Structure formats: structure tokens, C-alpha cells
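Model the whole thing, not chain by chain.
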Amino acid sequence: MAAFGAVLLGQLLRWTLWPRPAEAKSPLIWSPFQEARSAPRERGNILDRNGALLVTTGYRWKVAITPSHLSQKSAEKLAPRLAPLLGMSEGDFLRLIGPALPAPADANQPAGATPSAGWPYLALGQVDSAARAEIERRKQKAYDVQDKDPQSNPDFGLPWREVTLSPVAMRVYPEGGLAAHVLGFLNNEPKAFFGIEKYWDAELRGENPFDVTHEGIALTNLSEPFQRNASPDGAHDLVLTIDRAMQFIVEQELRATVERYSADGGTIIVIDPKTGALLASASYPTYNPASYSASPSEVWNDPAISAPYEPGSIFKIITMAAGLNAGVITPDSTYNDTGCRMFGGRKICNLDDRSYSISSMRDVLLHSLNLGTVHINELLDKEFYVYVERFGFGAATGIDLANEADGNVRRPGSPDWSEADLGSNSFGQGIAVTPLQMVSAVSAVANKGLLMKPHAVAGIIANGRMLKVEPYQVRRVIRQETAATLTEMLVEAVDRGAELAQVPGYSVAGKSGTAQIAVNGKYDENATIAGFIGYLPAHDPAFVILVKIVRPRGEAMGNRVAAPAFKRVAEQFVTLAGIPPDRKPSK
Amino acid sequence: MDRPIGIINRPLWRSAPALETASSVRWQTWIGLLVALFLLALVGWLHLEQKATITAARAEIRALEQRQIELERETRELQALLATQGAIEPMMRRAEALGLRPPERIVTLSVSPLPAAATAPASQTQPAAAPPALAWMSRVQDWLRGSP
């Protein structure tokens, strides 16, 4: 008896003081050990580098009804009160609900047959938050016994209880179509496609737990704009490296340039060469992710990362870097430029077919001489491809955006490579690179020879803390001295040969390019890709800017079409970022 | 009168000692049963009480969670509204409506570096006068020493 009593008392104490382990873990029962949140979190927000909201979650409300609990008469009473809130007429409402209502008793019905009991559920449509609030109000008024007057309370007694509301989450884009290609979108399922949404899908859904011990990641507290725009439910938010003001400038300039030259499209990318942070990336034509289905599916993919093209003369920067770094040339090395020559069994000419006779490597960049870079590759031979690989061509950069392409580099030893490719590759033909690969490679020159991994996410926010993504150094591709020498040569090329790209007060290192477009294995004589790539201030660069305009009309050359766009973007960027001039304005 | 034997010392299923009478056995049995019943009732009552408390708390938690979700939704919608109001394109439209225009040309004003701090020639330098506080202190010290 004593043992029995002791067991009972023990159980009493245990029940009172400590819940059973199963109960302690249950999210529905309070326990001192419970900290987990039982309600599901929404998809995280996406913010720009300064905390401005680019994507968040909004709601529409699905309105449904239980027709089996209604009669024709009660439906007719409800119709004038509910139908306008659904944006439909009473007649439409009754036509929609009619077949779902219980069938009235029929005297002619065969014996044994049961009349239809009506549908248990019928979706009526979706409403916004204002209509939802009104429906909720009317649902309450239907049971307000204090106000039964049909004049003041026409909802009293109506079958509002059969009307149900459930939230439907959807993505909201406060900045409209800004950075659409970078962001990607969610379809109605909802399933993520393209860009940040696709690449960071698991994190945005909160599936990937943070690993605070991960190398290269540091935890920081949130400053004001980030606190204000972080998800209220502690969902995983992403902070991008994109600056919305810079993105806006880039999109405006790109659109203006494409329209000015009636071009097929274009891309502008801006990267911080010291960190690899993507500051802005725009492609045109673009779309609005909130209404993505209204645009053709071809524009959903981001050409900046997934559309390889033959870069043309801007690739001469890479050939020149390889030649200088390998020591086969110096800026003052000369060669005899004959205008055209045979190389690997193929005739190669300068763009203007002119002969420049004895020319230095500075002249090669200044006049964009194809034969000059062919000369460099003749000296480099297959070592050229070592540099092509080191600069990151032929493989995805690894940027944290979905659908990045590798590009296409034919290397010696592969069956489709020939000696002639060594010549044409030197000036950016016969090699396919993505705009991002190109800007990333030139960033390495701007960053004193160090190649940084491009990235679009600066940090991840969860529960009031941010995990900051630190820049990642891929490798050294050229020596620091080589980078400095090449920068000097590129500054000279802009100062003496690209007036339209010059930014008053700032030294600009850059190169224009006019690439031909291959169509069915042949180059289209009437179509070009006009490009310009450059960085400034040249000796301590804050931005590397690539401008690519596809099939401009009326003007074909990169230094006429793309260089002015580069200049306008660069001018506004240095002002926005407050970068002091490094030259006297008169220069 | 026999020595009473407590139920704790003698469990019910044991045979009663020869000295015990039938009535005392019945009385002790009843007491034991009543105590057991009381304990069972107590256990049951406490269990029910706790379950009731848990259920009430559960309902309250659910209601609060629902409220929290509602507030979070509202916060998100307000965040979106605020961000939409401050979006670049509408702001630009509003600025244009006010007659503001983006600059046609950005002019950079370059300011020369400031000259180095001027230093007086050595010939013009004079020994600095003692600060007033120190002068006052030296007068006090002189007075303490008895100097005129």
C-alpha cells in the first residue's frame, strides 16, 4: 500500500512539475523547454545592399463557400452582399453557385434515387486585402444580435458563416520590374525560376539552416533599414550586392541606348573589382516579374550570365595581359602590321583592312589591331589557353544566380580546334564567353591581377542577425606589375582613342569592341555587337562596367555606340558613390 | 483492547493476526480503501486540472499565434506599401512633376589640397607666457615660501 501510494505521489509530482517528453516537444502545448515556432514562415524578403526592399510577400485572399449548407433562397439573399466584393454581378454569382447547391426535392424523382446534397466546397475567386476586410466585417455583422435592423445591418441573418477566406501568398515587387533578370520569379505553384529566387530557393523557404561556423561567413547585427525591411516572422531574407539606384541608372541608360540605335537588345554589368560584388546588372528586353507571363519566355533568361557571345576586340585585353605576363612582349614591343596576313591557313585582317606598318603594343590597343594580338598569340602559342583558363573562360564563374552558362572555348587537342583559332581567339572571335565572364576577367586586371568570384548576395538575415558573405578570391591570374602596366596602356587607349568614353576628372582604363555575329556558321556582314568595357578610377578602381549592345542600327562600332553609354553610367556612378576625381577636370 | 495495527504495517492481502477481531479488520480495510480512493481521486483531479489548463493554454496560444500571423501579414503589406511609395521610378515621376530634371552634365569642382600649417620663422618665436593658471599657482607658491 505504501509503495502504491509513493508511486502515485511520484507520478503526481512528475505530471505537475515536468510534462511528459512527448508533450514537451509538442508545439501546441506550453512547456518551459519549448522555443520553436509552430506557425510556418513565409518566403523571405530580398533587399538591396542598402536595405531597400526589392521583393517581399504580399497576400490575396481566396474566397470559398460551402454550397451544400445553402439553399437557392439563401444564396439569392447572399448574392447582392457578396458578389460586388468578388467583382462580379449577382447574376454571375448565382450562375456560378447554382449547380453546386443542393437539388430541391422533386416529386417526379424515381424511387430510391437521392437528390444531390450539393457541393461541400466551391472557390469563388480571389480578393485583395480591402475586400477581405469588408468580408470579415460582414461576417461579424451577420451575428450581431445588437443590431438586427435590416436597414442598418443588411447582413444580419445571412449565411455568411458558409463563406471562408484563406490567404494566398504572392511575391510583391515594390520597385516594379527593377533588376528582374537578377531576381527571377515565382510561378503560381509557387515554384522558383531564374536568378536569385531559383538559386537561393531553399534559403528563402527557410529550409537550409544557417551554418554560422562556415568559413568566410561572419555574423553581424542589423542596422536600421535592414531591421525595418526584414521579414517580420524571422524568415530567411537575402541582402543583395545590387544597389537599386545604380541598377536604375543602368537600366535607364541601357534602354535609352537600345532605343537610340534600334538595337535588338543589350546588357550592362557593373562589378566592384575588389570584391567581385555585382553592383548592377541589366539586360534588355526585360520583363516585370509580377506579370512574367505577359512577356515572351525568351526574355526570362538573363543574357548577362547565360547567353555566350563572341566578345570581339574587348577580348584583346586578355591577350595583351597574357603576352605581358608571359614576358613575350612589353608595351613598346613592335611588329610589322601589314593590314592582312595568313595565320593557320586563314586570312586575318584588321577591322579597317589598313596597314599600320611598324606598330607597338600600345598602338594595338589604341587602334584595336587584330594583327597585333595575332602576333602576341604567335609568340605565346598554346600558353595563350593557359591564360584563357586562368581568367575563368570556358567555365561558369560560380555566381550565385541560376542558369549560368559555361561559354565555349575550343582548346588545342580538341577535334574542333585548329591553328587558325589561335589567331582569331586573340581578338575575341571563335570563342564564346558570357558578359559576366568578360567583366569578371577584366575585373582581375583592375584588381591588380587577382580574380574574385562574382557574387550577388551580400548576406542572409535570420532572426535579427545577418550572416555576411565575405569576398572570395579565386586565384592570381597575372602579376601585379603586369596589371599595372596593362592599366596604363588601357588608360592611354581611352585618352587617345576613345573620347566618347572619357569621364572628366577621372582616369578611365578601357577598350571598345565591335564583334561580328555568327549566323549559320558564317559571320553576318551587317550585324555587330558593339561593346565597351572599362574601369575607373583606373589606378584604384571602384567599378568595372561592361556595355554590350546587340545589332545596333545606323552605327555599328563599339566606340560609337557603347562607349557613350559607358561614360554616362560611369559619370553617375562616381557621383552616386562619392568617389573623388583623380585628375584635373581639364584633362 | 488489542494494539491497533496500521494499514501501512499490514497490507490488506496478508492474513490477519490471530489477535485481531473481524470488526477491526473491516475498519482498517475501509480506511485503506478510502485512502486509496482519495489518492486516486486526487491523481485524477490533478490530471484533469492539468489537462484543462493545458487545453486552455493551447487555445490561447493558438489564438495568439493566429493574431501574430495576422500582424506579420499586415507588417509585410505595410512594408511593401512603404517600399512602393519610396520606389525610385514613382519618386522620379514625382520629381519630374515638380519640375526637377536629371543633370545634363556633371561638373566636378576640384579643390586644391590645403597648404601645410604655417609656422613662424625661428627668429620671430617668443617664449610663451605662462598660462594664467600656472602664474597664479607660482604666486601662491612664492607666498608660501615667504617671498615678497
